[in-house]
Write a structure and sequence with these properties.
Blueprint lengths: L1 H20 L8 H10 L8 E3 L1 H4 L3 E5 L5 E5 L2 H12 L6 E5 L2 E4 L3 H8 L2 E4 L1
Antiparallel strand pairs: 1-2, 2-3, 3-5, 4-5, 4-6
């Protein structure tokens, strides 16, 4: 029994790493996404809450002082509408996209594997 517990303890981080890299990470709120963002080594002290009207209907967001936007959506459709409107033809914008969440950041390429999302560009 101790051997199986030890084996699981060794495999659990690997399982989490692999599922995170597959884009399967989920975040239920902007504050939960902020915690994951900070865990990557990024900074987001004193984030500003962004009103839904400024982001998109069905979106809940916070803005970090480094101009990184952390957004969690009520539905996949709301996320897709936001991405179509924001990234379409923008050229320079980058986002990390996951299941019902988006991180708009200049360092999106580095964040994507750490947050468990996919890199999208305009």
């Amino acid at each position: 029994m101790h051997r199986s517990i030890a084996s699981f303890a060794l495999l659990a981080p690997l399982i989490l790493l692999l599922t995170g890299c597959a884009g399967g990470a989920t975040y239920a709120s902007p504050s939960e996404l902020q915690k994951a963002y900070v865990a990557t080594g990024a900074e987001c002290p004193e984030p500003l809450e962004v009103p839904e009207l400024m982001v998109s209907e069905g979106a809940h967001a916070i803005l970090c002082p480094n101009v990184t936007m952390l957004i969690v959506f009520d539905s996949d459709e709301a996320k897709n509408r936001y991405l179509a409107r924001t990234l379409d033809g923008s050229g320079d914008l980058q986002a990390v996209v996951g299941e019902r969440w988006v991180v708009m950041s200049s360092d999106a390429k580095d964040l994507a594997p750490k947050l468990g999302g996919e890199l999208k560009t305009g």
